[in-house]
Amino acid sequence: MYYHRQLEKKIEEVAGEFACITLYGARQTGKSTMIRNLFPDYEYVTLDDSRERMLATDDPKLFLDAHGIPLIIDEIQKVPELMDAIKIRVDEEKINSVKNSESVRAMYILTGSNTHEIKEKASESLAGRTAIIEVNSFSEIEKNKEEGQAFIPDIEILKSRQDRLRPKSRYEVFDEIFLGGMPEYWVSRPDRDTFFESYISTYLEKDVSRMINVGRLDDFRRFMRIMALRTSQQLDHTEIGNAVGIDARTAKNWISILESSGIIMILQPYANNLAKRIIKTPKMYFMDTGLCTFLCGWSDAGILEASAMAGALFETYVVSEIVKSIRNAGKRAEYCLYYYRDRDQKEVDLIYVQDQKLYPIEIKKGIGKDKADKNFSILAQYKMPIETGLIIDTSDKLFPLNRDAYYCPVGMIGL
């Protein structure tokens, strides 16, 4: 059974504008499945095939000649140098299209799982020639096969979408957190332990082993678990390093590997020169809560809901769903999402920034309490308009806390 992805519209749009499309993201997020469904007439080749990989490495020109266009190339990170040869082909085709007064449709579609390596090489070799798009695991909207939109915390926009809301109980939400959104797991429902153990082993062997000493893979596996247990927390490289048995510099490097692989996202603090007492340490969130809960060792959604980590995982779920909804619209979440915390321990979980306006957001795993918006006023120091804030929780409808804040059901994210 094929689940349509929200990104499909964006990909079809850029396919008529760019000669090349580059998709990146964590393993098992459905990149290849989506592309092959969208472009069934394109030839498909994967560089997992040793013969194809060898030919692409030894003679990129012959590799491209052998396959022609249009072509989907999977696992492009295994031969990133191939992008140089693709650049030449794209430029040649553009020249011919100008002579013949024709438009250039996507000639090459590249997919891969090493975010940093692919983005860096694509930016160098294919700058201006390729659309670069990030793919995440299923959002809840996609799992429910609904039409989704980018999350915008504007209260009037949310009110206009409320008729589509299907209220969720707290148990349903934690069941979704426990399951996560890995497409293969969600669709096929294999044994959970077997699936995620295989996922981690494949990730370590195919991605991580290319970036660190193979002898340290067991340390990296332990590091992943330590990171999962710290999801939604501020990053402390020294503390994480001590917990794993590595130095702070190595911890910082390994965190960048998780981020570049699409496993985690880093949320930066919002600051300007007026904020003298702000803490400038970023926070970290896992992008798939199913993987995160597996690494933490939870075996049941009910046990998870009653655990001390319930709040952290609910926050992780909310942030990841917001990020997915923004990315699925072809936008960069890093340009509009931040958080606030100062040395007086005053905190705002999320700040959505748009058109020089600040939208404060608090995240509560239960039904929001009366003073859930107590720190929103701290944002006045930025001398920018502060819009109606949100308390995202497990309530069943949009409802005003006061004139400055509304309770917002978690199920409204992405509607």
Question: What does this 3D model show about the protein?
Answer:
The structure is a single chain. Helix 9 (170-179) packs across helix 15 (289-296) and helix 13 packs across helix 14 (248-260). A hairpin with a 2-residue loop joins strand 12 and strand 13 (405-409). The chain folds into two domains: 7-134, P-loop containing nucleotide triphosphate hydrolases (Rossmann fold, 3-Layer(aba) Sandwich), CATH 3.40.50.300; 140-412, no CATH class. The strands form three sheets. The chain has a six-stranded mixed beta sheet with strand order 8-9-10-11-13-12, with helices on one face. A five-stranded parallel beta sheet has the order 2-3-4-1-5, sandwiched between helices. Strands 6-7 form a two-stranded antiparallel sheet. The chain has 415 residues and is of the alpha/beta class. The protein has helices spanning 7-15, 31-38, 50-58, 60-67, 82-99, 115-125, 140-143, 155-161, 170-179, 183-188, 192-206, 217-228, 237-244, 248-260, 289-296, 301-305, 310-327; strands spanning 20-24, 43-46, 71-74, 108-112, 130-134, 264-267, 283-286, 337-341, 347-354, 357-363, 389-393, 399-402, 405-409.
Total number of domains: 2
Spatial order of strands in the largest sheet: 8-9-10-11-13-12
What low-confidence regions span 5 or more consecutive residues with pLDDT below 50? none
Strand content: 15-25%
Counting H and I runs of at least 4 residues, what is the number of helices?
A: 17
> Mean pLDDT score, rounded?
91
Indicate the overall shape. Answer: globular
Give a quick account of the main beta sheet: strands, pairing sense, barrel closure.
Answer: 6 strands, mixed
- Assign a percent range to the helix content: 40-55%
The Rg value, from CA coordinates, equals 22 Å
